[in-house]
Amino acid sequence: EYWDKTHCVNGAKSRIYKIFQKIEEEESVSANDETYNKCLSYIEQHFSNCDINIATVCKNNFVSEAGLRRKFHTYAGMSPKQYLMKLRIDKAVNLLMDGNYSVKEIAELCGFSDEKYFSRAVKKKYGIPPSMFLDKI
Q1: CA–CA dist 29, 108 (Å, integer)
Q2: Which pTM value belongs to this model?
Q3: What pLDDT was estimated at residue 24?
Q4: In sequence order, which ranges of 1-137 are alpha helices (DSSP H)?
């Protein structure tokens, strides 16, 4: 019985170490993927432009849309479109928490073409509308 418990624990430890090693290898590969990093940088620099889309990112970084989607799924675990939305919402929530801007101003600053779409996106992610963030300050 002792052997079975010890063997089971050691087997679990071994699997956990293999998982950590795989994660580390994937992170080092993503850090060395120049195209992926350029696309990330481009998105982060232009996220506030409501006209940015994945086709624009691809065109400016000389990569196909399918290639970019593959890279994002591999390194970020989401599509480029999902990444852009997450970036916009995260930036918006930071601005909401600061309390220095109205909901409409934050929507514009974070690249949302209209305030209603922005409100729906925030509510979908956090379960509360942006105005509730302002009320909590």
Answers
A1: 35
A2: 0.72
A3: 62
A4: 2-32, 34-46, 54-61, 65-75, 80-98, 103-109, 115-126, 130-135
